Amino acid sequence: MAKSPSPSVLQKMNSAEHAIVPVILSGGAGSRLWPVSRKSFPKQFWPLLTEQTLLQETALRGQAEGTAGPVVVCNDAHRFIIAEQLRDAGIQDARIVLEPEGRNSTPAITAAAFIVAEHNPDAILWIMTADAAIQDEASLHQALSSAITAAKKGYLVTFGMTPTRPETGYGYIEQGEALPDMPDVFQVGRFVEKPDTSRARSFLAQGGYLWNSGMFVVRAATFLSEVERYEPEVFACVRQSVANRKSDMDFERLEPESFCRSPDISVDYAVAERTDMAAVVPGSFGWSDVGSWDALWELGPQDASGNVAHGNVMLEDVQRSYVRTDGILTAVLGVDDLIVVTTQDAVLVTKKDRAQDVKLLVQQLKKNDMPEADSHQMTYRPWGHYEALTQGHRFQVKKIVVKPGQKLSLQKHYHRAEHWVIVEGTALVTRGEEELIVRENESIYLPLGDLHRLENPGHIPLTLIEVQSGSYLGEDDIVRVEDVYSRN
Fold this sequence. Notes:
Elements: H1 8-13, E1 20-26, H2 54-61, E2 71-75, H3 79-88, E3 95-99, H4 105-117, E4 124-129, E5 133-134, H5 137-152, E6 156-161, E7 172-178, E8 186-192, H6 197-206, E9 209-219, H7 220-230, H8 232-243, E10 246-248, E11 251-253, H9 256-260, H10 267-272, E12 278-283, E13 287-288, H11 293-299, E14 308-310, E15 313-316, E16 322-325, E17 330-333, E18 338-342, E19 347-351, H12 358-367, E20 378-381, E21 384-392, E22 395-402, E23 410-412, E24 416-424, E25 427-431, E26 434-438, E27 443-446, E28 452-455, E29 462-470, E30 479-482
Parallel strand pairs: 1-2, 1-4, 2-3, 3-11, 6-12, 14-16, 15-17, 16-18
Antiparallel strand pairs: 4-9, 5-13, 6-9, 7-8, 7-9, 8-12, 10-11, 18-19, 20-21, 21-22, 22-29, 23-30, 24-27, 24-29, 25-26, 25-28
Helix pairs in contact: 4-7, 4-8, 7-8
């Protein structure tokens, strides 16, 4: 991926009256990238293209001198993951806004617009999803300068990508007439839903149609005015939710009752397709929504046989395929045009031209109540993570890693006892009225019903093996008495 260019383009467009505020929407589940992307840890949190995650790449893309810190709108379950990944990327001034539930993009953007407008209604919102890829960031910033010019004049501006193939996974924009005195900015003729293959081919042959990138540039006050005009119920519900929001550590928690009354509607349907101030800036900067495995094949480094391999992969007589493993050796022999993805608990094999249909498998998994639909074996928590190793009748074994200086909640269980064996680091364990130091190769037993807590007082990660035994081993058998992360 290209590095961000000098911020001079944005500096020229920026001013105190029209500060540029990146707004990052992080609410998708990315089901077409199953089994890597799942509801508990979706695609934006994975390093799918570089060593940085898609969220980190997006946030860094929005960083330039004079640009305000990003506003990230996400669901409650991902708040600590997002905060940690932003810190790891060196972004210290983000505002993380928590939705009580997903209500699509219009309520999310409206909440961000209200929050930004409290200090500067003329601020320019640069709205983007957390899970897209950009290969040519210099061209993106040039296009952004044109979009900002139009946004200052009251337009709702989107970026239209010049199509390179008859893509059926994207919506399209019909490019209209050029807008006067605004180079490279055009009216939107119309928005078009994701087409079938035949119609997509006709768009490509006809010309004048662009892929809808889902990125928008607009003044905060303009966006709020258009929402009030076309979706007054969204406007009223979100305004009340923002007004009654609460601070929770480093997060801003939207008031649930009002927000959840808001209609569930995308920004395309609510505003973009209805406003008479829609504009588009065409671009060719290597955009992709990274929405499917064939997209990652196109974006990845291909070998002489057209293959993209990631992880512990062995290929023999394989052409034009994408093979990925996050652990165990994956060997593929004598096939063409396949997607093969291996995780700790699932394997996906599909023809490359069926990559868009992976979501159908996820639907079947959910219909059958299979946990692999939404959850990984590894589960992330604000204090670290745990990994399910094995489970049998009345027992379960987990590997737990606690970050330095972090601690779990003070808790107890009604249905299970636990045995902890320290593998690496030092643990400070609360057990009833006792506080005990447990070191490497030592263990401690926690009887059923005992109040307990695990803490890492050291400077290296604490790793332990937990053996649970009892009549019920579900994660909901946790009674939290005290928690530094304000969880219930």
